[in-house]
Structures are given as C-alpha cells and as structure tokens.
Write a structure and sequence with these properties.
With 977 residues, this protein is α+β, with helices and mostly antiparallel strands. It contains 32 helices and 25 strands. It starts with 12 loop residues before the first strand and ends with a helix. InterPro entries: Metalloenz_LuxS/M16 (IPR011249), MPP/UQCRC_Complex (IPR050361), Pept_M16_N (IPR011765), Pept_M16_Zn_BS (IPR001431), Peptidase_M16_C (IPR007863).
Amino acid sequence: MPNAPTHAPHAPHRILVSALAASALLLVPAAFAAPADSEMATAAQSAKNQSWLYAGSDIPRDAAWQFGELPNGVRYAVRNNGVPPGQVSIRVRMDVGSLFETDKERGFAHLLEHLSFRGSEHIPDGEAKRIWQRFGVTFGSDSNAQTTPTQTVYQLDLPSATGANLDESMKLLAGMIREPRISDAAVAAERGVVLSELRESDGPQRRIADATNAHLFAGQLLGDRAPIGTPASLEGARASAVAAFHKRWYRPDRTVVVIVGDGDPTEFARLIAKYYGDWRGDGPAPRQPDFGNPDPKAAVVKEIVEANQPAALTLAMIRPWIKRVDTVENTRRLYLEFIALALVNRRLENRARTGGSYLVATVEQEYISRSADITLTQIVPLGDWKDALADVRGVIADAVTTAPSQADIDREANEIEAFLMKELENARNEPGARLADDLVRAVDINEVVSTPQGQVDMFRAIRASATPEVMLATSKAVFRGDATRVVLTSPKATEGGEKALLAALAAPATIRDDRLTSVAADFTQLPSLGTPGTLVASAPLPGLRAERIEFSNGVTALVSNNRVEPGKVRVNVRFGTGNRSVAADAPNLLWTGDYALVASGVGPWGQNELDQLTNGRQIQLGFSIDDDAFELTAESKPADLSDQLKLMAGKLAHPRWDKAPVERLRVGFLTGYDLNDATPNAVLDRHLRGWLSGNDARWSPPDRAAIEALTPEAFREFWEPRLASGPIEVQLFGDLQGVDYTTLLAETFGALSPRAPIVPSSGQRVQFAAHTVAPEISFHRGEKGQAAAMTAWPTGGGLASPRDARGLDILAAIFNDRLFDRLRAEQGASYGPVVDSYWPTGFEGSGGYLLVGSLLAPRDIDRFYAIARDIAADLVANPVSADELARNAGPLREQVARASTGNVYWMFLLEGATRDPRVAANALTIQDDISAVTAADIQRLARAYLKPDRQWSMAILPQGMSLADASALGKAAVGGR
C-alpha cells in the first residue's frame, strides 16, 4: 500500500494549528514600537509587523500565529501550544548558510554553529550545556542546531518551562548567537570536532553525493558548497576570520525568532524584545550572494566509478529557481505537480513489482536551496543499466504524451486528501516543536503557513480542477528542463563509458504504458474469519484508563478509549513469540519479514488490490518483530476501524504467498550486499547486535549464500506456522467514541480458530558476548582514516527489576556526558560518542547491556579505551555528585513526562499487559523509579555491572590495519603535538 505524503508537497502552508492556540493579534510591545505621527501610521506599522510572512499572499492566515518585527529588523512569530504540556520550543533562524561563504570560508557557517553552542562571551565554555541540563534539556535532541546551504537554525525545546528558566534560556541563546566565544582556543577545539564529523561522514556515499551535486549544479554555488566544508578550509580557520564571518552575516535584519509553547505569546514577544531589541548590525548590510542558475551548456552525462557500490542512475531535469509570492495559485501548481509525480511513481512501482528491469525507481520534484527547480529520477537497475534507463524514460514519455484517466487522478488525489483530513482531525495534538520547525522551513523556502481547514479547502478546490488535460500539461512542465543531467554510478567502468550514457539518453524514448489496470477489490471478498467470538472477560486495568478484554478463543485485547488524538485509532496486534520462536543457534528467516511478509498479500488480494482497498482511507498494515511477539501495526480512524481489523485478522487467517515480493527482497539484499562493510557505520549497523549476543543467529545477519538460497517456498515454510500459532493480544488506543469495539473485535480476532500453542524453543534467554582482554578486531573497506571502537558490559532484562533498569539509564547518561566532555569537547577526537543502556523485557534476566562506542580515527582507538576505563573505574570507586545526578536524571524524567501524554508511549509500555500484571505495574512507576535513583544506586549498579572481567570490546579498523598499527598512529600523533 503506498503511503500518503508525510506532508503536503513542498510543505506549502504547512498545517499549523492547535486547539490550545490563542487567536488574538499581538501588538509590538510599546517599548519597541516605532514612533508614529498618527493613529493611522501606527495601525499601518502594526499591520506590517503582523503580516510579514504573508506579504503579497492571498492565502488565508493562520490566526493562531502572532507576528511582529522589532525596530532593528528582528522578525518573530509566536503562538500558544500545549503539546506537550509545559514545553516551550524556541527556534532562531539566521539567514546564512554554506552558500554565503567565500572559497576560503567553506564550512565557516557550520563551524560557527558549533562555536555558538560552546557558549558566549558572558558564559564559561561548556556551561550552557550544563545549565540547560539542569532545566531538563537533553543535549543533541532538545538543544541542537543545523546548518544548510541557505540557513542556520538554533533549536531549544525547554520542558517544564517556568518564567525563570525561560528567561534564562532566552538570555543564553541570544548571547550565543549575538556574541559567541570565538577565540583561537575555541576554534581549535571545535575545528577538531568538525573535522571528526567530516572524517566520520567520509566514504563512497559522500563522494558520490559530492560528485553528483557538482555535476547536477555545474556553474552554481550549490555544486561545491557542502555545509561541512573542506579539510583545507577548516584547517585554515582562525578566530579572526570566523569572527569576521559572524560580523558580516549575524545581524538583526537576518534573524527570525520563533517561539511556540505552553505559555502566553505576549510574554514570548516581550522576551524576544528584551534580548534582541538592542542588537545592532555592525557596518553596512552585506550584498546577497548570487547563487547562480543551471548552466544548459555544461556536460550532460557523468559516470562515477566507486568500487563495491551498486549501479545507480540519476536522471534530472533542471530549471532555474524562481522566487514566487506564495499564493493560492502557487499552491495549486504545487499540488498538481505532486499529483503528476504520484501518477508516474505508481506506474514505476507497478512495473518493479511485476519484475521490471530495475529494483526501484522513483521521481520527485524539489525546489533546492533557492538555486534550482529540479525533477529528479533515481533508479537502481537490475542487470543492464541501459534497459532500466530506457524503461523509466518510457514511463515518463507516456506521462507526457497521453493524458491520465480521471480514475487515476482521483486515486492519487484521494491519498492526498486522506492525509490532509488526518492532519485536520489531529491538529490539536500537533507538537509545538513541529509547528516551530515548519514555520522556520516556510521562511526558508519563501512560503506561508495555513490552517488545516484552509489546507483541506484549498486542496478540494484544486483537485476539482485536476482534469486529464490539466494533468497532461502539468506532467509536460514537470518533465521539461532548461538542462538535463544524467549520472551513472557503477562499481567498475562501464563499456563505452560516458559516450554510451550520452547515446542512451539521446535515443528516442519508447513509450511504456505501465498504467494500472482497474481492479475490483472490496472487503466482501475476504474469506470468512469464522463465527464471532464470545466475550468471556472484561475489566478495567488497575490504575489505567484501559480495559482488558478476553474472548473464548484465547485472544485478549487492551483497549483505551481516549481523545488524546481525536479521529485516530492506533492498532497493534501482537501474536506468537517473536524472536523467542527461534533457537539462538538455529538458521532463520526473521530478516525477510519486514518487507516481504506484508507485500506477499492477504487472502485474494495482492499488492495492487490492497492499494485499491486502502485508497483514500486510513487503513495500513505494518509488520515488526519484538523479542516476545510478532506485531502487525496500523494507524486508522473510527470509520475505517472495522475494515482495518478485518485486514489484520485476514493476514493471520488467510495469508497470501505471492512470490514476487520474496524475489524482489532477495535481489535487493544482494544488490546492496557489498555496502555491508563499506564504512565502520555499515559494519556496526549489520553486526553489532549479533556480536553483543554472542553471535546469536536471531540477530546475526545472513551471509550472501543464505540470501542467494532464499526461495518463496522456504519463505512460506518459515512464516506460515508463525502466522498461525501462538497467543494473540490486540491493542486499540484512541478515539473510540461511538465505536462498538467489543463487537468489532469479536467479529475479527475473536472469530479466529483457537491458535496452536507454541512449544518453547531454546531461545528464551540471550547470551552476552564472551569477555575479551584485548579488543576483538573487525574490518571495513572504507577510508583509511576511519575506525570505530566500542566496549560493553552485560546487565540484565525482564520485568523483575524496573528500578535497576531506570538506574542504568541514568548511569548511561552520566557516562555519556563524561565521555562527550573528554572525547569530543576537550579533545575533538569524535563527533558523536554514545553510551546506551538496553534492558529488554522479553527475556527474563538476560539480554541487557551497557554499550559505550564512538566513531574515531584509528589513532584515537587507544585513547577511547583509556577514557572509557577511567570513567568506568571512577563510577565504581566514587559516588556521583548531587548536581551531576540531577543534570542527567532530569532530562530523562522530562523525556518520560513528555512522552507519557501520547498513546504511542503507553502502547509500547503496556505490550503484554493482558497476560502479565507486572507490565502495567512497571509502566505506572517509571517516573517515580527515575526520581528515586540516588548516587548510591548509581555506584551500586556500576559496581554490579561495570566489571572488567565481564567486559567485551571490539574495534573496527580499515582493511589490513592491526591494532598495533592504530596504536602506533596514536603515539605518533601525541609525539607530534
């Protein structure tokens, strides 16, 4: 089933509304109001200040937003929003990014972002992070920043905001932006961090991306202005040059401050005026850079050869970026473009499903960095790339030659409208952080924001005009460009090279009519699920607004009827025993379920029929594997819940076993197989969980032979008994007012035949990796300057010790904070060290670990292990201070408090609650358990688990390098300092 777009095309007028938002207009505070000669002048100035985002637009305003502009040019947007309760989200957007840099300044915008977060001239280095931790802020998620080609955005999500900590946070953030600490020492420290980030992102994927951008955007700044910069420009960065960059671009007239949260917008505006109102730009405003236009005379084709990378094609039609006023007509154009692309994407996917010449092909249209309007087609060929390119061009040729049917247009429009209606129904639950991010994005791409109802109304009017003739004209415009570019990535030089690529592009496109044949699919075609079940028990779950239901066939359900998300019902069907259904040393096909199990169909329906069944409706079918259950998941709505449950029950009772998805999965795994050791990150993603579990087969990846041996018959043999056996628990959480959910459950899951019991396998426990004295070694085939190191200790698991699980979370946070300070902030050896505590509940007494790891340069491997040993030994030997405990427990407690306002949180915590009362009991005490953890608990847990004789370590090095070689590099680096 195709997914509806995650947001409206190009996020036009992003749906930004909250039932809690204030609607009154906000006047500029009197202390900062521009002097006026008359009431009329005052009103005119106020109107200008109130509508700067909507200047020239005829799109109805979202009145929940209140806008203003200070006399110095700082613009702002504020609104009230209570999701999650108590939180205030702050964004400061600076109109400067990597496209504003000179050749010698490459990377300076990003480097400056790093420097700003160290603190300001008024705050000691690193102290801002600690202050925000005391406010419950998690560094890296609640406080962060991002630099793009066109903007730098500073982000702060302040939980449990009070007048005092909001004022202090605004002061800190304004100081960092206005007067960052730009000293030679600070630049040297952050240069190391950014160079680590650059090193850790280096590899074939980045080289391909850089070469592709240089080709697509030849003659434009975007072609060679990656925000990360270059080693040469970063090594040459000095405090004076970075300060000059800051002086030039960090000015009040280039600043937008956005505040959304559980508070008074008038107070938000007052704080903006307080901390930004006296800011003055230094010198004349700089000239806006010319980002350039696509060059039609630049080379059309490019071949990029990267060993061990799969073949891939990029076909681009490029047009100049045009600055437009965002109007209703502009919105119409955007939506019509989106529908045109959706029509082509569905045809491309249909061809891939039926065994085409490519594994996947998609088209998208983007307005990129105020530089280009581009239609981009990405293709992963199967076999000869020329066949794949010809087939995709043929589908595009059909789209620009023959008008689509109205039925095809309506199919795509239904998907968009269903998504917009879903957003409208859930508008009151829109998190403030998302609202803030969306407004910043609107500013960056020169668009406005509108209400959910306004968005629905606009789209309904637009879709009425989407006739076949209009869509044909739109398709022609979307697939026409001032410049055409093609990039072929290949593991080895292709026969004929770029000449062959140019010839393939020049050949006339042969029309491929891959339009979907209309299918007649409805839920009456589903075979009977059985006689509706008998309700045998129904009772509230103590302490929770949830009801436990049990049917005569053994199916249990946990139902929470609430209005947390109006119009939405979340469904989670847990069946069988998940990872526990497989022995630790037995071959398995768990790795095939994620895609192929759903794609192989239900009853009489294959993928196309499922698309028809779900078109324009909120009916989904997701699949995942938990330690103690398999899960079918969906987000639905009350009107669709009956059919949603029929579909999910039908998957268990009447699974279909189409062969094509299994073959597509097999080919996809083989196509990407050589990427598995291309970088340290790739090695970790593939192997880490298997290593930590002592090479348990449930988490160890399949090798090439196992992938090649996959057949539809073997797939069915593995999965069919698992779909048919073991207990079923259904979770229904959401807006169930007026829904007879007991009857719906009785008619679906309650009607299923009693399930066959599962004989417990030997996989009820998880072994931890064997202790190592020296780190084990694994290798990657990427850059010689890249490595990774990790060390871990076994802990526990299950439901018996919930307070220890929470204590280990805090211990991990403290360990991470110290590792960050020493490995990154002090020494610049790593961009993102991480410490994680994992305590699974699906394996009683086993499966847990505390993991410490980082991407590094090989020379820093020994330093990493030395620092990790020091931190672990200190945590064992000495109790943490009250401040350190509070700074790390507080953010965890705030994360729980925010998450606990939503259904997703409670559904996750209450998995299995209908069968084990400890699940609900533990879920209700998490906040108390975190609050109860003491310094003595942290030391007790460190002594219990951080034992050198149980420790396991692994280093991932470049192919051919030994640990001794890495150590020698480290000693040489120290000697050279």
